[in-house]
């Protein structure tokens, strides 16, 4: 049986397929997240599936706030993934987080271009190549693995691959559900 709150498939891409959950329907887990982040549409939309949301938010929070990767590496990977998936929501939010992690406006703009066209460090280039290869082939070449192994430990290598895959999944959900960026 279709959900009552969905809109027809032919609706405008500017209209969410599943609207954010109204505040009076938030459970304790969603209230706790929103008390820290504000009522972001990603959370209030995914919060419509409470069991899935509770599992996902713990995993996502670990990757974003408690991971072993530096903020720079994490945000380079996420923003390059958002670019590949053409995910405006992910790009919008992680642009700000990337700036907070030390990326410059020029670097963020360059993430939408061929990496050869910007003066990336070898480490930055390895992260971008990893995001590009995982997007294109679903795996990493031996050369990219070797480059990443030059500055990431075992935990970092695992985490980078999982991070990129996770943000592909998040972009799929945001794009398919048509979650709209908040108005600033």
What does this protein look like?
- The longest helix has 24 residues.
- The protein has two domains: 40 residues, no CATH class; 106 residues, AhpD-like, CATH 1.20.1290.
- The chain is globular, with a radius of gyration of 17 Å.
- The protein contains nine helices and no strands.
- The chain starts with 27 loop residues before the first helix and ends in a 7-residue tail after the last helix.
- With 184 residues, it is mainly α.
- Helix 4 runs parallel beside helix 7, helix 4 packs parallel to helix 9 and helix 7 packs across helix 9.
- Pfam families: CMD.
- This is Carboxymuconolactone decarboxylase-like domain-containing protein.
- GO terms for molecular function: peroxiredoxin activity.
- InterPro entries: AhpD-like, CMD-like.
Provide the descriptors you would attach to this structure in a database record.
single chain; about 180 residues; mainly alpha; AhpD-like; 9 helices; CMD-like; Carboxymuconolactone decarboxylase-like domain-containing protein; peroxiredoxin activity
Summarize the structure.
The chain has helices at 28-37, 41-46, 50-65, 71-84, 88-100, 105-110, 122-137, 142-149, 154-177. It is mainly α.
